[in-house]
Design a protein that fits this description.
Layout: E1 2-9, H1 15-22, E2 28-38, H2 43-46, E3 50-56, E4 59-67, E5 73-81, H3 97-101, E6 108-123, E7 127-140, E8 143-157, H4 160-172, E9 176-177, H5 182-190
Length: about 200
């Protein structure tokens, strides 16, 4: 499946307003704890691929993301997992298979995220958007990078719907455009420091 989304950073002074805006209609909250994997040489990151295991409520989901046809679009492959153990055989026959077969080193845990997501869907004239406000941290060893972002993901309709609502929120709440994913920020954060003792996961 493909994913089309726009991310905006939420500065601290705007956080309460963004939360209030989401709660104007019925919304839900979910805890999302994820582990991101790559080789010691960042082979996946260099190919702009991210693999994670994420606990969504009570369920583990293995997700691979790789570039799509434009900056807003990503190929996303999701598989439910019985436990937090990677299974790369799930990508046989997919567009990701060739890149994974080229890996010279085993995958290891590189960083983690601990996120609380407040989200709801909104219909616009041009499509249906899921709006999600994520707060929490990206964690590498004992160091943490705060996360505060609102994400607009196209559920149905035209991609113009993302820009229409994104422009409105950008101006109204004085948000900041940031196209980097959590995996891109986590990879950059991880590489700022030497970290020992991270465990290697079975492939």
């Amino acid at each position: 499946m493909s994913e089309q989304e726009l991310k905006l950073h939420v500065p601290a002074p705007a956080a309460a307003q963004v939360e209030k805006a989401l709660k104007k209609a019925k919304c839900e909250t979910i805890a999302l704890r994820a582990m991101y994997f790559d080789t010691a040489d960042r082979e996946l990151a260099k190919s702009k691929i991210a693999i994670r295991l994420r606990l969504e409520g009570d369920n583990w989901v293995q997700t691979l993301k790789m570039p799509g046809s434009n900056a807003l679009t990503k190929l996303e492959l999701n598989h439910n997992r019985p436990s937090p153990v990677l299974d790369l055989s799930l990508y046989a026959g997919t567009p990701a298979e060739a890149a994974l077969l080229k890996l010279a080193k085993p995958l290891e845990l590189r960083y983690e995220t601990d996120i609380t997501r407040l989200y709801r869907r909104q219909r616009t004239r041009k499509g249906t958007i899921e709006i999600a406000f994520d707060t929490g941290v990206i964690r590498a060893a004992e160091l943490e990078l705060p996360v505060s972002e609102v994400e607009f993901e196209l559920v149905s309709g035209s991609p113009e719907a993302i820009f229409e609502i994104g422009r409105k929120w950008l101006s109204q709440y004085k948000l900041v455009l940031d196209l980097r994913s959590k995996s891109q920020r986590g990879d950059a954060w991880r590489n700022l420091q030497p970290i020992s003792g991270l465990r290697t996961m079975p492939a």
